[in-house]
Amino acid sequence: MTVKSLTVNEALRFANHDFLNHLHLIQMNLDLQRVNEAKEIITQLSEHCKMLSNINQLKLPKTVQWLQTVSWCYPAIQMSLSSQVEAQVNSKYDEAIVQYLENTIIHVHESLDPYEQQQLQLSIESNEKECDITFHLTGKWEHSLFHTEQKILNVKTYEHTDTSWKYVLSIYEE
User: Fold this and answer.
1) Which residue among 15, 39, 117, 171 has the highest number of C-beta atoms inside a 10 angstrom radius?
2) 70 by DSSP, 3-state: which?
3) φ and ψ at 113, to 5 degrees?
4) How many Cβ atoms sit within 10 Å of the Cβ of residue 12?
């Protein structure tokens, strides 16, 4: 399955929309004299920017683009992302990572329950020896088997039900 990329115009439109939403939220809190809440929003945005900068150290342009735009492409799924990237990953894994992550989302997307909150937690850890991407989706969807031929990535599934899907995608460099 091919991953549909956003155009530059679409990405900028989404980014500007998010930026304005954050500014309005800060302004609203300031208008209500809730200075601490406004400061907290600024701190959260700052941490998010640091995390996005950190994932760029993976040196996987397609994967980084997917991570930065997935919530725009699938707005029914709320995403949280954490990263601890200390080393880059061999670029030969880039396409395979994106395809696996995208195929996972596509597999459940059509059957998501619109009355349930869908939450995707992605955690990325990378060092000189390995890279792990933990995928944990919670919500409600129709459970069906998911199998994709994987020759280049190591995938260990911890849970796969109609309310939770957790796996770790691992890359080991010898």
Assistant:
1) 171
2) helix
3) -75, 115
4) 11
Helices 61-73 and 94-109, axial angle in degrees (round to 10): 20
Instruction: Sheet containing 164-172: give its strands across.
Output: 77-85, 118-126, 130-138, 164-172, 154-160
Nearest Cα to Cα of residue 60 among 155, 148, 157, 153: 153
Q: How far are the Cα atoms of 60, 77, 100, 147 from residue 93, in angstroms, in the given order? A: 8, 25, 11, 19
**Among the residues of 88-136, which ranges form H helices?**
94-109
Question: CA geometry: angle at 76 spanning 71 and 80, to 5°?
Answer: 45
Joined together, the tokens standing for residue 31 give 């208008």
Q: Which of 38, 44, 83 is nearest to 63 (CA)?
A: 83
Q: pLDDT per position in the chain (174 positions), as tens? A: 455 678 888 888 888 998 999 999 999 999 999 999 999 999 999 999 999 999 999 999 999 999 999 999 999 999 999 999 999 999 999 999 999 999 999 988 888 888 999 999 999 999 999 999 999 999 998 877 776 667 788 999 999 988 999 999 998 765
> Where are the extended beta strands (E) located within the chain?
77-85, 118-126, 130-138, 154-160, 164-172
CB within 8 A of 66, min separation 6: which ones?
3, 98, 101, 102
